[in-house]
């Protein structure tokens, strides 16, 4: 009992009568302390009933472990506190147990029951900590217990516990690989988890346990793409890396097909004049030949991955930006890879370690995608404060980016770098000058003259490196630079660097006919100092002697024999072997006479000039951003990037079936299965929301949507026709239900009639055209449910405040902006073409924007054979061509309807308008407001959907409304004229709400305008498509403030 007081006296501390001493940290004692009872006070603290003392003791113990002290003798005292109710104490106990569980396996097994009880604790942090400790005990005997615990945790209500279960899977797999099949089942279950907290961890477990099981990813691919932006940064890196490999196995290469498409389009363009000369017959033959070609169309899932990773280029994490950059480099089309350049250049402002990794990857990218980084050339200029390895990498990038345009600027930079005090950097700069001279022929002489000037530098390393580079450059044009070879020969007395001396000797021997007087003298000097030279120099002296013996044997015969005799007795066996071999080859003898006749051809054969290539040229076979790419060697655990498939695998494997418990009609079920994948994130919120919203929209009497994802309404004119219904007969009403977009010409009328009759006879078909056929509108309109919904709507309007909009205002205008010129009559040689966005559903495809093309012939001759030529469209954009117009008489005008799928982007659709004699290149670029269709929501539905689209999906802008734009009518008119949105009823007079969906992906777009009597207003747009939301805010603000 006297041991503890003695210990306290030694330390100079004092303790109260009922309280142990903890004024001094026992961990601070000497490492070789012989006091074996120094932990008695800690044990006493752990045995007390006070949580504060236990916490203090655990903090000290963890500090001891951090300092490398052995605290294993405290294991029994610590384990007793696993059942402590204080969470902070429990956490530290678990930290301690994780550290010593493997060493103290027998003692750890005694606490297994305690951990199993912890797995049932009501606190999620305790459950997760217990699982973490259990999985860290590296004892094979408890594998079944660990497996059971992981399976239970995978079904836990808490996402944090499920995340811990995912972390435990690789630990168990490394302990017992025979459990792989059971672990794959758990991984499959966790992959279906919809929480962002679990996604990154389970993908990491997938990569560790079963990366070859690509089939587990199919059903979860779209969900992972949509969740990616909300996952933590570590998880984003893991998921992006996995999806990169997945995409390489499931999609076609966009690069190879792009080059094929460009080749085809060029042939079609350049062959157009020949086809015109041959006549209409050859034109028909060409038109029949074109469809046999298969143009590249990017898989929508491929596009989804590229689109959802692009915003992550703005991430604060360098690892995430690097992961997205490598994904775009390996997966994106050439035209889209450039977006990563700015993000990578931004990372160059970070720490030197980050710069090193980024520059390694930029150096690889800049070889194949030089144009991507050329605008940022100055960002790679070298600072004096940069470390040497950063300087050399920037030099590599600058050399890769050098071309005939910027080479003067780059060479001026290199001249500055040569004066640096960093010798390794200077040597690398001289090599870079040589590479520039090799790659760009017009500056070769300039570079060579500059390197020759460096030969007079005081620094021997600079001179030596210059000699080596000059030697390589002279091999390209040796006849023109005899003076330089003479100048180099004079340097043999001064230069002592072996590589430089060897390079000079090789040059003199190779081009000895250009310096016939100097070469023998150089050999004489080298023969004197032969025994003192380095091995690499001796080998070149032997070569020089052999070449001079073959070309000038009178002057050099004796010198050659002397050098070969010296080399015969050299200490290095390479030199001895070379001397014997050379003697037998050049000196004729009875046995070797046949071989010596060809000695001149062997020694003086013309040699190709060396190609100075970047050391990063072949590194792109490693996945960018990986450790293997950084080391340029395959690291342990590296997974090869798969090659693109020759034929795309079946894309339907990524379709997720709708559960049967969604109580909807059979046709709606079928359409739900065929819905576009873009809205997968919406589908995750549950199909019941879709059913509820459909019922509420039916009761409101607004247009019913056949499915939640289809942006085209079934009866877009039903609300306006309801006001006409009272004074018109049923027959007339049916006629009026033909869409206005089909009344432009007789040909379109006939097409609509025929399509309506066909749809009536095939009402049970599953085609998408059926959703917009007039027959389906008639059936929906005359149904009793719709009549009841309309009556209920008018009753609601009469009860609610007068600030609610008129039902006609719920629809946006039937057409967008006014006519826009597509082809001027002067450029079109009398053919004038305008276009308008009709905002009516396109009958061929509901995902397409309906565009009315107006043709007018102001010439004196008829225009024949008006049709659309071969379009050259960006990936994802498609065109539904209008029927060919056979003839347009002078002074006559006509209108046709054309469908364009802009793929939810404002990229221009470029195509050709062709006649029998001419081709006109035109393009249609849509305003962002024409890429959507109105959707009708109740106020509650609007608020519910808006609550889901917050954070990065919400864009807010403050503005001031002019006096001319403060009435309800003007505000609604300007907003709906700018964007094809539907008005949402609102109970307040100072707030306007509008809703719509993008045509291609069906993504919601919600617009809210909150006004004040003073004219101040706030515009808010909520959209899954951040780019569309940003552009829409800009356009609406501009419309309201003009």
Automatic annotation (TrEMBL):
<dbReference type="Pfam" id="PF01602">
    <property type="entry name" value="Adaptin_N"/>
</dbReference>
<dbReference type="GO" id="GO:0030665">
    <property type="term" value="C:clathrin-coated vesicle membrane"/>
</dbReference>
<dbReference type="InterPro" id="IPR011989">
    <property type="entry name" value="ARM-like"/>
</dbReference>
<dbReference type="GO" id="GO:0016192">
    <property type="term" value="P:vesicle-mediated transport"/>
</dbReference>
<feature type="compositionally biased region" description="Basic and acidic residues">
    <location>
        <begin position="666"/>
        <end position="677"/>
    </location>
</feature>
<dbReference type="GO" id="GO:0005794">
    <property type="term" value="C:Golgi apparatus"/>
</dbReference>
<keyword id="KW-0653">Protein transport</keyword>
<keyword id="KW-0813">Transport</keyword>
<keyword id="KW-0597">Phosphoprotein</keyword>
<protein>
    <recommendedName>
        <fullName>AP-3 complex subunit beta</fullName>
    </recommendedName>
</protein>
<dbReference type="InterPro" id="IPR029390">
    <property type="entry name" value="AP3B_C"/>
</dbReference>
<dbReference type="InterPro" id="IPR026739">
    <property type="entry name" value="AP_beta"/>
</dbReference>
<dbReference type="Pfam" id="PF14796">
    <property type="entry name" value="AP3B1_C"/>
</dbReference>
<comment type="similarity">
    <text>Belongs to the adaptor complexes large subunit family.</text>
</comment>
<feature type="region of interest" description="Disordered">
    <location>
        <begin position="666"/>
        <end position="780"/>
    </location>
</feature>
<dbReference type="InterPro" id="IPR056314">
    <property type="entry name" value="AP3B1/2_C"/>
</dbReference>
<keyword id="KW-0472">Membrane</keyword>
<dbReference type="GO" id="GO:0006886">
    <property type="term" value="P:intracellular protein transport"/>
</dbReference>
<dbReference type="InterPro" id="IPR013041">
    <property type="entry name" value="Clathrin_app_Ig-like_sf"/>
</dbReference>
<feature type="region of interest" description="Disordered">
    <location>
        <begin position="271"/>
        <end position="295"/>
    </location>
</feature>
<keyword id="KW-0968">Cytoplasmic vesicle</keyword>
<comment type="function">
    <text>Subunit of non-clathrin- and clathrin-associated adaptor protein complex 3 (AP-3) that plays a role in protein sorting in the late-Golgi/trans-Golgi network (TGN) and/or endosomes. The AP complexes mediate both the recruitment of clathrin to membranes and the recognition of sorting signals within the cytosolic tails of transmembrane cargo molecules. AP-3 appears to be involved in the sorting of a subset of transmembrane proteins targeted to lysosomes and lysosome-related organelles.</text>
</comment>
<feature type="region of interest" description="Disordered">
    <location>
        <begin position="1"/>
        <end position="30"/>
    </location>
</feature>
<feature type="compositionally biased region" description="Low complexity">
    <location>
        <begin position="745"/>
        <end position="762"/>
    </location>
</feature>
<keyword id="KW-0333">Golgi apparatus</keyword>
<dbReference type="GO" id="GO:0030123">
    <property type="term" value="C:AP-3 adaptor complex"/>
</dbReference>
<dbReference type="InterPro" id="IPR026740">
    <property type="entry name" value="AP3_beta"/>
</dbReference>
<feature type="compositionally biased region" description="Acidic residues">
    <location>
        <begin position="763"/>
        <end position="772"/>
    </location>
</feature>
<dbReference type="Pfam" id="PF24080">
    <property type="entry name" value="AP3B1_C_2"/>
</dbReference>
<feature type="domain" description="AP-3 complex subunit beta C-terminal">
    <location>
        <begin position="778"/>
        <end position="907"/>
    </location>
</feature>
<dbReference type="InterPro" id="IPR016024">
    <property type="entry name" value="ARM-type_fold"/>
</dbReference>
<dbReference type="InterPro" id="IPR002553">
    <property type="entry name" value="Clathrin/coatomer_adapt-like_N"/>
</dbReference>
